[in-house]
Each structure stands twice: as structure tokens, then as C-alpha cells.
Design a protein that fits this description.
Elements: H1 17-24, E1 40-46, H2 51-56, H3 62-66, E2 68-69, E3 73-74, H4 81-90, H5 94-97, E4 103-104, E5 112-113, E6 118-121, E7 124-127, H6 134-137, H7 143-149, E8 153-159, H8 166-171, E9 176-180, H9 183-195, E10 200-206, H10 208-216, H11 221-239, E11 245-251, E12 256-257, H12 268-271, E13 274-280, E14 283-288, H13 293-304, E15 308-312, H14 313-318, E16 336-340, H15 353-356, E17 360-361, H16 367-370, E18 371-372, E19 374-377
Parallel strand pairs: 1-10, 1-11, 8-9, 8-10
Antiparallel strand pairs: 2-19, 3-18, 4-5, 6-7, 11-19, 12-17, 13-14, 14-16, 15-16
Helix pairs in contact: 9-11, 10-11
Amino acid sequence: MTTPLLPRYGTGSLAEVLPSVLAALGEPGPAPIALPSVRAACVLLVDGLGAELLRTHAVDAPFLAAMADAGPLTVGFPSTTPISLATLGTGLPPGGHGIVGLSFDPGDHALLDALRWTRDRDGRHHDQRETHVPEVVQPHDTALQRAAAAGIVVTMVAPRFQRESGLTRAALRGGDFHGVFALGDLAAETVAGLSGPGRRLCYAYHSDLDTLGHVHGPGTLPWRLQLRQIDLLVSTIAAALPPDALLVVTGDHGMVTVDRAPDFDAEERLQAGVALLGGDARARHVYTVDGAADDVLATWRTVLGDDAWVVPRDEAVAANWFGPLGPHVAGRIGDVVAAMRGGTALVRTRAEPKLAALIGQHGSLTSAEQLVPLLVAGPAG
């Protein structure tokens, strides 16, 4: 791919999923994705379920492969879990909700880890849920809040530890949280969330496919066997759906296998003029010292060459990488933004040793990372 795959904000991205589901439940508002009118609906997000990976390994997921597909959708940039969950949860692109990287500068010249909601000081991670209040960092009402305000019974089904996490508070606040341990109670709680009286909306989340993709690589045997378990999960939920309920399955990103890993911590040319390096191994926010942005841009383009699309902030914004920016967002984007190409990961072996060691990575603007399915079962399936 010689040009980046730009997110289709407003027409075919994760931001359009929940507004379209709310329209299917009878709420007024735009519905870019056509879905049937129903009494109850569930959105199941499978972390790491990329459209290209699913198509390649359809034999391991026959039920998923046979579902009606209203996608593929683009996830937005960076194609990383906290950004995608906020995009799904708010119905806004990253430039609107303001969670613009796996880590980013929220305005005080230090990095906030959006997945763990921590800051790294003196080699230790410190909880930032009250210093950087999630409801302030991401101030917009979520789709779950809007649904609950309209009288829809809203259920969130996710791992127990996510109940009061900073990311949950920022991106997915508003539902009655049901913490789960494994696939069995995830399926049971999801079906229960759809089965009571009145209009109902359930958001459910499963993470293990992403974990095995990171550790073993996407498409490896462990990854494929996990995909088989997810296929059974989805077929189980679909079989138990009430007749007036809808199941929508999507992902937050795809994944690529790393075959080249330049190391920022070992490359002095990349370090020159850089005050902070945020983002992740496939999508970097480069915050520069005063007056150094042009030199950093030129150096990064020279050093990374064809391994990355490297652009200044204004160009990334003008090209709609992040979507329209809210007034609080521009300064959170790096002075220089680097999106990796091919199988390149720009790692930090000293500052981010666990992230640097991962075989599978995501975050950039390739079709393998950007495209996710939108699978439908129920009245439309």
C-alpha cells in the first residue's frame, strides 16, 4: 500500500455503529448504517477482529463468515483499543472525543496511558483517574448515556476489572455494568441483558483474540483456535436471541505481524529534538522541543523512509486522520505524527519493553489494521 487508508468518518466507521443501533431501537437521529427496527440490540466488540484476518481464516469461524456483513468499517486513527472504544462509545471520531493515542499528552507536557489510565513517574505507574478525571479528559456524553436517558435499559458486559477503569469511565460510561470472567458468563449476561421487558441495549466486550495475536502473531494456530472459540460464543448468543432482538459483532482493529522493529531508544537521530514520544509501536505522536518540529520531521522521514508515513500535525489533521477536532484536542496530537507501513513497528526497548516484544501490532493506517467487520444476526441476519 503506497497511500494510507483514511478512516471513513461519518459514513462507514466505528463512530456510526451505536447511533445506527439507537435508531434501530427507535431513537431519533442519524442512522448511517441501515439496521432493522428492533426492541433490543447487542453490540459485541471482539478485540482484534480484523476484517481481512476474518476473511483469510473463515474456515475457523464458519458462523461468523455466514453472518450478514454490513461492513467493513474503518476504525479510525490510531487503530488502537482505547481510541476505538471511545469512538464506538461516543459516536465521535478521535478528533471529537480527544483520546488520540495509546498514550498522549493531555495538556501538561507528560504522557497519559489511555489504556491503563496511568502516568509513569520514577519507573512506577500511578493511577490518574482523579488527577486526569476521565469525564473531563473525554467530556462528551456517551451513546450509552444517551440511551439510558431515553429510557432504554442499558447493560455493559465486560471483564470485572474494567468496572471503574479510567477508560470505561471516559468512553463507555452510562450502562449497568456486569463483570464477567470467561466466555460462558459473557454469553449468559449478554442474553440476559436482551431478554427483559422494554427496549434494551447491551454492549459486550471480549479481549482474548487480541491478546493471542499480540503474543503469538495473528493467524497463528493459537490465534486461530481462539477464533474458533469466539465463533462458538457468537453462535451461542445468536441462538438465544429473543425474536425481536439484534446482535451486531464488530472489532476495534485488525493486526499485522512485525517483521522490522527500529528502536527509538537506540537511535540517537530519532531522539534529537524530541521532548516526548507517545502513541504505540505502529502510530507515534512525536512532541518536539520548541522550534525543533521541522528538523524532527525531516530527520524522521529520512531515518524511517518507506517504513512510515511521517507528517506534521497540520497535515494529519487536514487529511482527516483524526476527524474534525474539538476545541480541546489539537494540542494532544504530536507536532509530528508517524504511522508505520508494512510490518514495521517503531519500538522502545528500554521505555516500553513489553510492548516492544509483541509479535503482533496495530495502530496504523493499513487496511489490515483499519478494516473491521460489522456482522448482523437476528431480524436482519
